[in-house]
Amino acid sequence: MNIYDKLGVRRLINGHHWRTALGGSVMPPEVLDAMAESAGYFVDLEGLHRRAGEYVADLTGADAGLVTAGCSAAQVLQAAACMTGLDHEKIARLPDSSGMKNEIVIQKSQRNHYDTSYQLAGAKLVEIGSDQGAARAELEAAITDKTAAVAYVWVMRFYSLPLEDVIAAAHVRSVPVVLDAASELPPVENLSRFIRMGVDLVAFSGGKGIRGPQSTGILAGRKDLMQAAWENAFFFGKDKAGIGRPMKVAKEEIVGLVKALELFVEADHESEWAEWRDRSTRIAETVGRLDGVKAWVHEGPIYEGPTAPTATIELPESWDGPTVEQAEEGLRLGEPSIHVGVLPDQRRLWVAPVALQNDEHAIVARRLVEELSK
Ligand SMILES: *Cc1c(COP(=O)(O)O)cnc(C)c1O
């Protein structure tokens, strides 16, 4: 009996992507082995953190790196570091940020349910622009002597001021730019890309495309801010814990993330992409045989998912079968449970191949045909 069957919890086929709510990613066996091996020993956690941080710095090209408890914890530390610097009185006082530079400027078009991480640290979000974007002059006007940082969310860069412009405007005023790049790996180049562009602190998830433990993340960036993030996270040797203390990373998770990163940078990303394209093509071909249904493989940045060749299915306006919402629900509630993306306004369903295992693409294709034929 499968462990989830014993627990009475349903497994699912993830045609969405490395989505947190669906379990993040599946760790490669090498990562699990490394975690199991690391679990059998005591170790100086600070020393392990420092060594892992150096590795992250190497890969990102940043001055320093840190393994965090997810991208969200990295975002808490971004805010904390930019508000407190190395001032121990301030570090001990968070989330009470009164009297500090405690405002983080963010474009309205980039507000998302993860930006509460900044507020958790005690920062106040100052919103600029509209859903359609913001002007550089609006950003410049919002930066005051209370501004701790400007936040940017890479996945929401459309309808937003370009990152280059945000960096330029913030740096003129000596204000750091903190980036949420949670699900931007792969492509592997993104590990160092944002630091090269001039971002001061970048945060990634460890449990999405890197395929490390779901509870891990990465923070990397400028030396002084990384030192401030470190002290907010640990405050080792002091009599008070920092705001990051409840966001602890276990030794097994640190070791697992390092192993996952090693595998990630060594992987043959081109052949992986080709395999993804192949799976999506097979889904699109099978479903596209249904009368009137258009199905193709989309290769740009997509919808809510990662950049990957993604099977896209569009129903004609004249369609009198099930709606895309009904088909999506049928797949999700069916046996096996299958999660796919749905864009009701465009009468589209999409299936990303990145989290499909073994021959699950064939199961997804068959079930899509069944649901759409009802
Ligand atoms: C997933 C995600 C996060 C949170 O990452 P965790 O590693 O789960 O903490 C933050 N921001 C964005 C845009 C995300 O997609």
Features:
single chain; 374 residues; alpha/beta; Aspartate Aminotransferase, domain 1; Aspartate Aminotransferase, domain 2; 2 domains; four-stranded antiparallel sheet; 16% strand; binds pyridoxal-5'-phosphate
What report would you give on this structure?
This protein has 374 residues and is an alpha/beta fold. It folds into 2 domains: 3-17 and 268-372, Aspartate Aminotransferase, domain 1, CATH 3.90.1150; 42-266, 3-Layer(aba) Sandwich (Aspartate Aminotransferase, domain 2). It is 41% helix and 16% strand. The protein has helices at 3-7, 29-38, 45-60, 70-84, 88-93, 116-120, 136-142, 163-172, 190-197, 223-233, 251-266, 269-288, 324-333, 360-372; strands spanning 12-14, 64-68, 103-107, 124-128, 147-153, 177-180, 201-205, 217-221, 294-298, 310-314, 337-339, 341-343, 348-351. Strand 6 (177-180), helix 9 (190-197) and strand 7 (201-205) form a beta-alpha-beta unit. The radius of gyration is 22 Å and the shape is globular. Residues 20, 70-72, 114, 153, 155, 180, 182-183, 205, 207, 217 line the site of pyridoxal-5'-phosphate.
